Amino acid sequence: MPGSGEYAGRSHAQYRLAQRHSRRVRILKLLLPLSAALIMIAFVAVSWIDTLGPEGVAVESVSLRDGKLVMQNPVMSGQGSDARPYSMRAARAIQDLTTPDVIALEEIVADLPVSNGDKATLNALSGLYNRVAQTLVFDKAFTVTSEAGMEASLQSADIDLEEGNLETSDPVSIRSPEASVVAQSMKMQDKGRVIIFQDKVRMTINPSALKPKDGATN
């Protein structure tokens, strides 16, 4: 039978492993609200695009060019189910009349509430929404930042709005005052509840984030 010293050593190692695991979980929980905001913004984008027209959206001008309906400076604002306000605007929304289910957006800015009273802002150069496929594609770099100091930077993203999934095969960076994660690709499932970082994943943790708060335990 193993000696008491050997048993104590294994127990101490297991304790340290459990402690590191709990710290990782705590840090990832800090990053999750911002990640979930990406999916939230996508769903608000759909509700906004679906109402483009005479009612519900302010549009500076509408014109028909080369078989495309062009809306200048469309803006939508409203309240979510929790009565917190949101807004979304774009420089242009373009709908090709030969493919009316596809709408292209340019220079998108969305301000949305996230968890714990925080707000997040999305800035995207362009996006493509397909009503039939229920997909939203960001084909160029975009960022999501929160008032609490969290920031997500992505080069592109394919979002399945029906399933609540997001996938990108390009580099992604998610940062907060407590930690940061950098990866070459990422998948999000179940509206941001499951996040999978892939390829050359690096996580950096601010040492102060590992210190238990008053009354907190690992």
Mean pLDDT: 78
CATH topology description: lipopolysaccharide transport protein A fold
CATH superfamily annotation: Lipopolysaccharide (LPS) transport protein A like domain
Give Rg in angstroms.
Answer: 22 Å
Helix content estimate: 10-25%
Q: How many distinct helices? A: 1
- Please state roughly what percent of the residues sit in beta strands, choosing from under 5%, 5-15%, 15-25%, 25-35%, 35-45% or over 45%: 35-45%
Biggest sheet details:
17 strands, antiparallel
What is the correct CATH architecture?
Sandwich
Strand pairing plus helix content: what structural class?
Answer: alpha+beta
Runs in which pLDDT lies below 50 for 5 or more consecutive residues are 17-23
Q: Care to describe what's here?
A:
This protein has one helix at 4-50, and strands spanning 61-65, 68-72, 75-79, 85-89, 92-96, 102-113, 119-130, 135-138, 142-146, 151-154, 157-160, 165-168, 172-175, 179-183, 185-189, 194-198, 202-205. The chain has one domain (4-208): lipopolysaccharide transport protein A fold (Sandwich), CATH 2.60.450. The radius of gyration is 22 Å and the shape is globular. It is an alpha+beta fold and 218 residues long. 22% of the residues lie in helices and 43% in strands. It has 1 helix and 17 strands. The protein has a 17-stranded antiparallel β-sheet that branches.
